[in-house]
Amino acid sequence: MAVVPTDRAARDCIAAGQAVLGIEFGSTNIKASLIGADHEQLASGSHAWENQYVERTWTYSLEAVASGLQEAVAMLLADAEKRHGVRPQQFAAIGISAMMHGYLAFDQAGELLVPFRTWRNTSTGQASAALTEAFGVNIPLRWSVAHYYQALLDGEEHTSRIGHLTTLAGYVHQKLTGRRVLGVGDASGMFPIDSATGGYDAALGRRFDELAAASGASGRLFDLLPQVLPAGQDAGRLSPEGARLLDPSGTLQPGAAFCPPEGDAGTGMVATNSTAPRTGNVSAGTSIFAMVVLDAPLAFPHQEIDLVATPAGDPVAMVHCNNGASELAAWAGVFGEFAAALGSPAASEKVFSTLFAAALEGCRDGGGLLAYNYLSGEPVTGLQEGRPLLLRTPDSSLNLGNLMRAHIYGVFATLSLGMRILAAEHAAVEKMYAHGGIFRTAGVAQRFLAAALDVPVAVGSTAGHGGAWGIAVLAAYRLARAEQPQLELSDYLADRVFAGAAVNTVLPDPTDVAGYAAYLRAYVDGLSVERAAIHAI
Predict the structure, then answer these.
(1) Which residues form a coiled coil (predicted)?
(2) Homologous superfamily of domain range 102-166+191-224
(3) Is the pLDDT score of 356 beyond 60?
(4) Where in the chain are the domains?
(5) DSSP secondary structure letters along 376-439
(6) H or E element: which one contains 358?
(7) pLDDT digits (tens, 9 = 90+) for 7-45
């Protein structure tokens, strides 16, 4: 095998078992990232997967979880050997991250009781509304407790046999370590967190048990949930069984330390250095969400705003939109097929960069075109299902530039509606950090997001590595915290990870801001068409 020249420090780090592994289960890809002492990515691997819509439920099979994990790790091990001439046999630390929320219910023997219900499902409206009213805080549709309570309200037979509930990250972590724990950021998407104690809110737990008992539940909710751990804590070690799951060849050795498993929102905050109060970030993928770390509580609960936590346990206001860049990617795929049909096939990166460049030539308001990216229901705008739409009037200007600008605007539209609420609560930030594939083409999506939020938007040099790199950094922090127990996560990131990191910041262009505002006004008016489409089709 040909070996790409590498520096000796990276090779020695891998050979000595001192490299750190991060794995994240995203909506469309499972990614693995290997980092060294300076937090630079040494190797990577990935596996593409897709959720399935089975009997009106968005789900992934646990078999797909295991096989995808193994393929991503196998690609990383091969990449490390190709790039550095040495195949990892041991890691110093490992971290697991995954898309947050959803419902994974197991019996006492560890058998899955019903198919995994992901964050994308919006069938928990009755439970969400009841719990929000009872708790006085917003309980989103996708939270684990909403799924559990909805199952109780619906009288689902499996609820009497539940031994424990967890998230996808918690499930994979338990398979690798035997520990049933969860990072506080991910746990905050299962049940509200008490920021004073760093654990589940005890008073709300008692209230839930009262409500659940009326629907036939027995026992305490907290007995079903994973133990909550903040970033930097010991979350177990790689077991022999876990090592074989990661690497069926048997080469990989057990013993690596684990950080608490986290959600993709938490790893996004880490990847963009946005864990300190009054910092914020936007993560764009299959879904799109913004996180603003609070320095004061919100005045009122809002249906559009989730209260979650950073991996360190600090309170965060989250605007989560179920629909992100998937519809935009579908249109790019159509244009890619058209190019191939003309005899000029192009790689997807080339297709995206060409279409994004065209968007810069479009009218500032999208030329009268509106793009609704609703493949699934959208709680922020109160829609139970999705119907992707391209809407225009007869006098609108349909051309490539306007089409693509409207689609990119459409990715950010629902998010900007939620962010307006935070701005009214005086919880806005001076700069938003962004990451996700949509920002790879320089100067386009970043510029449009700045217009949508009317704040500067920064994209760092590490943002392209994504959540797998972010959870690897959290695993490295677990090692550093063992040596320096008082080391805060925000200080670790600022002083050791991001010191001197390159950041590109784009200021909002006033003409873009005005054009986007016009687009958004029409977008809000057009939501009635989206609602009609759900009923009609």
Answers:
(1) none
(2) ATPase, nucleotide binding domain (3.30.420.40)
(3) yes
(4) 102-166+191-224
(5) S-BGGGTBSS---EEEE-TTS--SHHHHHHHHHHHHHHHHHHHHHHHHHTT---S-EEEESGGG
(6) helix 348-359
(7) 789 999 999 999 999 999 998 899 999 999 999 999 999
